[in-house]
Design goal:
CATH architecture: Sandwich
CATH class: Mainly Beta
Distance between the termini: 37 Å
Shape: globular
Number of strands: 9
Number of domains: 1
Radius of gyration: 17 Å
Length: 223
């Protein structure tokens, strides 16, 4: 990833973008705005997406994205999923890093890679993700990948329409995930998902024996 981030355009077809937007809209309609400047007082955030929609399964498990993660993270898990809708009037978010959520010394290997999927065109005017050296503008259907040590933040929305994206965080598999997916996606829910997504949620062993259930691979629970 050049300079810690890269944009890949055209990974979602227009019909996939439309399907994701249609599934997310009822959830966004009932979600309140944030209550502080960091999460955004004019921003809506919907977490726990694997338990709420199947329309994003292709994005969460996209081979182009997953293939880019292993060289950076080694074995990895899905850590967080959040739809973020930045509304007009929102101010720019403070630049921050995502890896700092864990008490891991700075300067070591990367432990986080995030993927931001654009479900609207991301422009500087409508709140595209900012870095210290620029703005990640990209058309709908694109994905932005960036490492957890890279300072970034949502931009100010100076346009007259909301800007919708989905943040998908992946962490090294030995870390605790930000979202407790085994509660939001217990076995009866996980059984409805593609196998690759089941494994990303934590239904697999971290070699050689971490995360077992009564001495067995947790995937046995789903069979």
């Amino acid at each position: 990833m050049l300079d810690g981030h890269v944009i890949i355009e055209g990974l979602l077809r227009p019909e996939e973008v439309a399907a994701a937007r249609a599934e997310l809209q009822p959830l966004l309609d009932t979600t309140p705005f944030g209550t502080n400047s960091f999460v955004g007082r004019r921003t809506k955030r919907v977490f726990g997406l694997p338990a709420k929609t199947r329309a994003l399964d292709g994005a969460l498990t996209h081979p182009r994205v997953l293939d880019a993660l292993a060289p950076v993270l080694g074995p990895f898990l899905l850590s967080t999923t959040v739809a973020v809708e930045i509304h007009p009037g929102e101010t720019a978010q403070t630049l921050h890093t995502d890896g700092s959520a864990w008490p891991v010394p700075a300067g070591g290997p990367e432990i986080v890679v995030n993927a931001i999927w654009a479900l609207d065109d991301f422009t500087e005017a409508n709140g595209a993700t900012r870095f210290e050296d620029g703005v990640a503008e990209m058309p709908a259907g694109s994905v932005l990948l960036y490492v957890g040590s890279l300072p970034h933040g949502g931009g100010a929305n100076l346009s007259d329409a909301p800007r919708l994206g989905v943040i998908v965080g992946y962490t090294a598999a030995w870390l605790r995930q930000q979202e407790n997916f085994t509660l939001t996606c217990p076995p009866e829910v996980a059984r409805t998902m593609p196998e690759r997504l089941q494994r990303l949620l934590g239904y697999e062993l971290y070699p050689p024996f971490v995360g077992h259930v009564d001495g067995h691979d947790p995937r046995d629970l789903l069979r």
